[in-house]
Backbone:
């Protein structure tokens, strides 16, 4: 059976941090990189296969990572200069880039092991261990990394970049390189920063992709800053709010696009709220390296449903299920690690634990969406993905489905499960406090559970953003944001917000009718 390929785009520094940990997790899952091991995950969905000079298989991500000039502080050498790493790719000239960081000396590198640990932030390229094709990296030379005198902090700045033919043509060429080698393209992962100029560039690229590939699914996780810093001034705050509003309204209007706002803070608009708590993780909420690693683990778990060797659902089908009735903004919850002991059955664990919407071991990763829901505020729909429970995958799905039908019958639910654990590489920057995690010298294996949801709390999230946008005097920023465009964005967000209240009104109405009949 042919793989159903996915092309991944990462835009912005934090999005690329998430991507680095995402690819490290993929590479740590057994020996698939050398073809020595088979598992339940079809890695051909995300990776492209090449042959080395010794006729050995090598996998590189089907990835386009975009960032500012100066964000990749590394020298590089091409595959082919070393017999050990030479690639003879059927569609590329065989050169795959290996990045060697210049940002630390040898002793520091040895102290880091295979990657960044602790609070050492570095650059995202320092944390990435996967080999890359030269087409995978694109830096925007006209935008400098951390240039405070010319911050790349507004939606319109990103869209303006797309009007430059050189940048547009170079990005399109790289996209077509990866897309044209796919036999059965099922969609795109598009990871991007929500509140800076990369959101505008992302929306312009998404317009192109949706137009060219209308039958594909688009999964667009977007990230809110995880470093709890005060905006430089009121203008910076207003830029962040308006840029976030423009990006959400634009992405949500695209067909087959599921927008997933993610952060490790409970709230995110006018100011960041308290950080989320994970019972078995001791992490630094101000660390890009820590927070992005947790988000990557969540995305890995969530996506097993359409990355499995024998998937029960495609990316397009999943995004369509979550975004039904116009609810194109989703939410994500994570249990990491999932606290089931190796000697316990899933049935026993579920029967002795509180319902999912009350469980303390599940944490929301979407700001303004609570980790624990009241019974009358259950999700409209949720897709549960489970990794690492040592029972037959079909048995796990069946038990979990039965449990959800009984305990959460008001919420429509689907379940996907794989027996393969989530494998954390030695470079994973956070220690997982779990007595049941399987440790080795190089890797830690843990179980995990995610819930991708269409949740009524999104209505409050959007309403708060609309309120903050309305409180901004747009006339003082008319040189950056057209007042009519701001009004249109606010109207779109209000319409989107209303989609999360209709079903509840209908449900309560139906319930009242039933009471009258009795």
Residues:
């Amino acid at each position: 059976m042919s793989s159903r390929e996915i092309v991944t785009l990462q835009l912005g520094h934090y999005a690329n941090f998430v991507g680095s940990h995402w690819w490290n997790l993929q590479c740590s899952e057994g020996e698939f990189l050398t073809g020595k091991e088979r598992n339940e995950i079809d890695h051909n969905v995300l990776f492209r296969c090449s042959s080395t000079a010794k006729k050995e298989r090598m996998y590189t991500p089907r990835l386009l990572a975009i960032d500012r000039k100066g964000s990749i502080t590394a020298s590089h050498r091409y595959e082919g200069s070393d017999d050990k790493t030479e690639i003879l790719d059927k569609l590329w000239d065989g050169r795959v880039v290996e990045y060697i960081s210049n940002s630390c000396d040898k002793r520091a590198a040895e102290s880091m092991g295979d990657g960044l640990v602790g609070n050492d932030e570095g650059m995202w390229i320092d944390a990435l261990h996967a080999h890359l094709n030269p087409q995978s990296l694109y830096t925007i030379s006209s935008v400098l990394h951390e240039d405070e005198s010319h911050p790349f902090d507004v939606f319109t700045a990103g869209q303006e970049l797309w009007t430059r033919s050189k940048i547009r043509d170079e990005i399109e060429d790289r996209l077509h390189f990866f897309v044209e080698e796919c036999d059965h393209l099922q969609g795109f992962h598009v990871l991007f920063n929500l509140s800076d100029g990369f959101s505008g560039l992302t929306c312009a690229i998404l317009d192109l992709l949706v137009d060219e590939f209308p039958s594909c699914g688009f999964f667009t996780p977007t990230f809110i800053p995880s470093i709890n810093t005060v905006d430089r001034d009121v203008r910076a705050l207003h830029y962040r709010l308006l840029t976030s509003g423009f990006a959400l309204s634009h992405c949500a209007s695209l067909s087959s696009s599921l927008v997933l706002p993610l952060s490790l803070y409970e709230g995110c608009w006018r100011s960041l709220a308290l950080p989320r708590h994970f019972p078995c993780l001791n992490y630094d909420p101000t660390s890009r390296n820590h927070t992005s690693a947790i988000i990557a683990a969540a995305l890995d778990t969530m996506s097993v449903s359409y990355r499995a060797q024998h998937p029960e659902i495609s990316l397009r089908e999943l995004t369509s299920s979550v975004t039904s009735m116009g609810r194109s903004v989703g939410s994500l919850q994570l249990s990491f690690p999932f606290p089931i002991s190796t000697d316990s059955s899933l049935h026993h664990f579920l029967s002795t634990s509180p319902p999912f919407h009350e469980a303390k071991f599940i944490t929301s990763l979407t700001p303004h969406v609570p980790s624990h829901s009241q019974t009358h505020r259950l999700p409209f729909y949720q897709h549960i993905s489970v990794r690492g429970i040592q029972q037959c995958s079909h048995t796990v799905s069946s038990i979990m489905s039965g449990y959800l039908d009984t305990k959460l019958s008001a919420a429509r639910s689907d379940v996907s499960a794989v027996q393969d654990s989530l494998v954390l590489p030695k470079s994973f920057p956070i220690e997982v406090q779990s007595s049941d995690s399987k440790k080795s010298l190089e890797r830690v294996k843990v179980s995990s559970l995610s819930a991708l949801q269409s949740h009524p709390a999104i209505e409050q999230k959007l309403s708060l953003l609309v309120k903050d946008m309305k409180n901004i005097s747009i006339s003082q920023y008319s040189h950056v944001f057209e007042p009519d465009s701001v009004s249109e964005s606010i109207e779109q967000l209000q319409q989107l917000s209303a989609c999360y209240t209709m079903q509840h009104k209908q449900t309560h109405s139906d319930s009242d009718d039933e009471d009258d009949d009795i």
